Amino acid sequence: MELSDFAGDLYFVLEYTGVLLAATVGGTVAKRMNFDIVGFAFIALISSLSGGFIRDAILNDGPAAALTNPGYLITATIGGAIAYTVTLKGRLWENFRFYADIVTIGVWAVAGTLKGLVADLNWVPCILLAVITATGGTAMRDIVLRQVPALFTSQKMTVFPAIISSAIMLGFNHFDLVWQGMLAAAVAAPIFAVAVYFGGDRFSFFATKEIERPLEEKLGYALGVKTDIRHPVESGEHVTQALEEATDDQLLGAIRLYLQNEVRERSKAKA
Questions:
Q1: Residues 239, 220: contact at Cβ < 8 Å?
Q2: Cα(261)–Cα(265) distance, rounded to whole angstroms?
Q3: What is the widest separation between alpha-carbon atoms in the chain?
Q4: Could you write out the three-class secondary structure of 141-205?
Q5: What is the pLDDT of residues 11-68, one digit of tens each?
Q6: Which pLDDT belongs to residue 210?
Q7: Mainly localized where (predicted)?
Q8: From its phi and psi, is residue 34 left (phi > 0), alpha (psi between -120 and 50) or beta?
């Protein structure tokens, strides 16, 4: 498969968009963790380029695109610089990180699928490359930060949208509608992710398992504080404030409830 000039230009626009957003999100995460300039740049670059590096290594088709095209490193640097100079916090930051992450899923799923098509692979490896490209950066970022990768706990928000986006791209390509498929697939993934986030718990297949809940959510429930997984930083601040203001009796009651829920959740997971 060969891309037309317009489709090729659109491909780079989509992939650069993903690099810019991922570098900005990664850089802001490093900034909030008080990393120095080296750690800051490292996290920004890993977040934005790891998925492409892994994809290109699997294809074994010469040097990775990020090494042969300076535009990738330049775009990642710009994204990191935005995160370094612009202060995003509170609900603004949480909303940006949430929507930036799901937008990158769509654009990188398209990029991974097209890489597979250009290499004349069939639909199975094309979908695999889409998932790797879409999730590789965030997975590597979480591993470096010693966190459980969101890939393992939020598949409905990452893997499934990437698969759907890749399938749409493959379907359009079958009818030689390449650039139309690129746009449709890039838009479909974030729409699906948002739909699942807001309404997925109505279906058992997409329901969030209790064992996946973060610590601040579990403590917030025990303390009677409302939390939102889409706003982890803000939720953590509310829980921290509640812990500081709680009396000894309230803390003991919250700890008892937390431990009871923890034992109950772990027992269900092993059943």
A1: yes
A2: 6
A3: 69
A4: HHHHCCCCCHHHHCHHHHHHHHHHHHHHHHHHHHCCCHHHHHHHHHHHHHHHHHHHHHHHHHCCC
A5: 888 889 989 999 988 888 888 778 888 888 889 999 999 999 999 999 987 888 888 8
A6: 46
A7: membrane
A8: left
Question: What DSSP assignment string belongs to 225-238?
Answer: ----TT-HHHHHHH
In this structure, what are the phi and psi dihedrals at residue 177, rounded to the nearest 5 degrees?
A: -105, 70
What angle separates helix 215-223 from helix 248-270, to the nearest 10 degrees? Answer: 130
Q: Where are the domains of the chain?
A: 5-202, 210-270
Per-residue pLDDT at 211: 43
Whole-angstrom Cα distance, residue 53 to residue 163?
19
What is the mean pLDDT of the segment spanning 242-257? 87
What's the start-to-end Cα distance of the chain, in Å?
A: 49
Q: Confirm if 45 and 144 have CB atoms less than 8 A apart.
A: no
Q: Can you read off the two tokens belonging to residue 21?
A: 């957003």
- 118-122, 180-184, 201-205: which has the minimum mean pLDDT? 201-205
pLDDT of residue 240: 84
Q: What would the two tokens of residue 270 be?
A: 């092993």
Q: What is the mean pLDDT of residues 90-113?
A: 84
Neighbours of 23 (CB within 10 A): 30
For the chain, what percentages of helix, strand and coil (3-state, to nearest 5) are there?
80, 0, 20
Give the pTM: 0.73
Helix (H, G, I), strand (E, B) or coil at 40: helix
